Amino acid sequence: MTSKLPTPQPRPKPLKRPTQSRAKATVQAIFDTYVRIWQRDGWERITTRAIALEAGVAVGTLYDYFPSKQALHSGYVRHCIEALLQAIEQQAVEPEDLRWQQRLGSLVRLLCGAEGQVSWFHHEMLELEPLVAEQKHQRRAYDELLGAWRRVFDAAGDLPDKPNDATLEALHLAVWGGRRYAMLVQLDEHAMGEWAQQMERFCQQAICSSR
User: Fold this and answer.
1) Which long-range contacts (CB under 8 A, 24 or more apart) does 193-199 make?
2) Cα 83–chain centre separation
3) Lesser CB count within 10 Å: N end or C end of the chain?
4) Residue-wise pLDDT tens digits, 105-158
């Protein structure tokens, strides 16, 4: 008799995104508290009620955005990706006086987590991914970060021969995939810094050899 696979359960999602300044500040306070409690007490001891109490917001207000801690985690991960993309724009795309090597270096260090912590990441987040993210969400984040590589090199006016899409995707897989694996094995800060430096050199050499 053929066994029947269990029906996939719908993943928890944030209910809405803040649009007004006050609402954005409230959600940021919720995220900050979420990270603080996780760092102090661990994932298992996080509750939405505890977050609301420590953040100074009503439980009902928190539920307006996040009906569960899994939905809150989903929202926080999305917040991290958006913060990373914004940092790339500000540091590697928008400045007009950078050489292409400086743009690439800033991009790689940000993606490696070596350009200051844009957002807090923890290795347990990788274990939680199947609970909060569908494949289409993974693909969306992947494509957005790959698009950041293209924007960085589009902004590099001093690099006449731009790397092709295949080269950029290979570099993106090496850097972002490497960071995820480094999180999984919990490399320490020194090892992460050494790896980021090596990846920056590797990417520069790859761009030069592809011209």
Assistant:
1) 193/114, 195/112, 196/108, 196/109, 196/112, 196/113, 196/114, 197/114, 199/108, 199/112, 199/174, 199/175
2) 7
3) N
4) 999 999 998 876 667 777 788 777 777 777 888 899 999 999 999 999 999 999
Q: What is the 3-class SS of 48-82, one letter each residue?
A: HHHHHHHHCCCHHHHHHHCCCHHHHHHHHHHHHHH
| Start-to-end Cα distance in the chain | 59
Is 192 in contact with 113 (CB distance < 8 Å)? yes
* pTM for the model: 0.85
Query: What is the length of the chain?
Result: 211
